Each structure stands twice: as C-alpha cells, then as structure tokens.
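Deliverable D4.2, example record:
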Amino acid sequence: MDKSMLSIACLFGLSISYWPVVAEESRPAPYEIIAELEHGPGNVAVGPTGRIIFSLHQMYSPDINVMELMADGTTRPYPSEAWARPPNGEEELGTHAVLGVVIDQNQTLWLLDNASSPPRLIAWDMKNERLKRIYPLSSGSYTPKNTMINDLAVNLSDKKVYIADIFGDQGAGLIVVDIQTGDVRTVLRGHKSTSAELDSDLIIGGRGLRMKTDAEIITPKIGVNPITIDSQNKYVYYGAMHGTSIYRIPTSALNDETLSPSQLKKTIERFGDKPVSDGISIDEAGNVYVTDLQGYGIGVTAPNGKYRRLFTDRDTFIWPDGLSTAPKGTIVGTINQLNRSAPLNAGYDESKPPFYIYRFNAIADVKIGR
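Output generated by the structure prediction step:
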C-alpha cells in the first residue's frame, strides 16, 4: 500500500445543458436547499416514507455520527443519542465513525461503522426503532487490514450488501456481505475498475488535495468510492473517485462464489464516462447521477455511456458528496467542502458553515434505496 493510501487509512481509522443557480423567470431553480448545517455531512439516505438520515463526516471529527433531518428542519441524533455517539467502554451500543447509509424499501437503515475494530455493517429497523443485526466485517474470507469502507448498495432480492472499500494492502476493492449467513468476502481487489485511474491531481478551486504526513505533504489517489445498484438488482455500478469511468458488474456474478477471480473480471463492463466524483445514484431509466467535484454540480451518465452536466453552482456545490433516491421522483444529496477539511488540506481546516442537504428532480422515476 503506498504512502498516500496509508495516510488516508490512518486518518479514517480514527476516524447542462447549463443552468445558473439564480433562476430565470421562465425556468425553475435546478435544485432546492432543504437544510443548512453547522457540521459537514457525509452520506444521506431517504426512506419510503420520506424520512432523511445522514451521517456526519468523520474528517470533521464530529461528536455525533448519525442524525435525522426532521420535517420542520431540525435535526436529532439517530437512532438515539447513545447509538449516534462512540461506544462507552465495552458496550455494543454506539458507532465509532459512519459514512455509508442506505434505507431500503422495508425501512431498514444500513449503516457502515468504518472505524470500529473490526468495521461493522449495522441493520436498524426504522419501523419499530430497534436493532436488527450487527455484521462484523471480518468473517468468512475477508480480514480487514488498512482498509476504508465507504459506501454501500443493498440487494434485498439476493440478500446481499455490496461495499466500496477505497483502499487496502492489496488495493481498493468490493466487499460482498451475505445478510443471511453473515459471511463476508472481498473481490476485485486491485482491479483496474476499482483503482484510481488518473495521474493528475483532483483540482478544486485551483488547488489539489494535500495530505499531511509526519514527513511530507502528499497527494492522495482514491479508488472505488461511488457505488449503486439498479432497481431490478441486476447490476452494481461503481467507479474510482479519481477516475473517469463508471463500471458495472452483474449481481449474479458478484454473488457467485464459484467464479474464479479471472472469471469474475470477465463479467465487468465499462458503462460510461464520468468526471472525478464522489457519490452516485441511478433512476428507473438507467441514468446514473454523478457528483461532479471539479464541475461544482451534478451530472448524469446516460445508458449510452455519454456524460453531461445537469447543473453547476461554484458558490454552493463545494464537494457534493452522497446521493440518495427519494420519494416523488427526486434525489437528495449532501455538500460538505471536504477539499477544505484539514485531512485533505495539508492539516488546515478552511471549511466554513453552512454545509447543505439539497434535492433535485430526477430525469426519470426512481426507486427508494439507490
């Protein structure tokens, strides 16, 4: 594992067509701010009843890891104060650091507690407000070492969860969790589809990402981060943050433990183009929505593989991060200025509240949990 990946591991282990923002009289604004936050959010999940859950990004060392955005615009720790904070002593109750969050159609909230030892996938029943199950991500053929689990896609049809692991001793890869047996295995570790593609820096505001180590300032290169699954649970879509490609792989292949690594790799397709990005989502027509980090906005990769920006706003969309499908054909996202956070800005925190949760209309209908 190279120095830039090891440094990120240490940090996380602790832890449009073009539309202007100001709408013309004949054109509605392309997005709506639904919350202004004092602390940087991570990812966001919207359930079938419209409830909004979001993580607080661990790069900002939050006291609370997960919150619910209430209908009146206020927030509260979720599922509870105790669960949203780090565990007290040896108690199971609590979370260490959370990024990935998804609410499925059965109103189960899936949380990735990536800084626990080992990392954990937590399933929470939002209908009855109770813990369903904790999956330690160290069983089966997977043993975490210098890894960073980031985001996830949930496949209820096949009882699987797919997790993006942005680096590891053998490179970035995907983790497959069987939510019936609890078995965990890793695939595509170090494959080109999960690895950073670009030699150039991620430049935002005229400046690249800079990470301070004990000896020097380095430029991180980040592998697979964006991940989603189509509404038929047929394909998982994913790509590297530092990359210009979206790939997809059949869930039938990911689920098949009899396939050799070489056989599995042959099932991967390059779906289309994308910019350097963080989160992605997908609609019923197969359009993949992409957070455009250098373009300060949101774009879409059509089923024909062509990418275009939907809208851009240099003043507001400073590191758009997570995306989630939501009711009424909308998509909800977070904005958190990560490029200005101390871990990615050579040790200096230049971020300034407010941070945002926003929503926009999808091109086609959407299904919850993407």
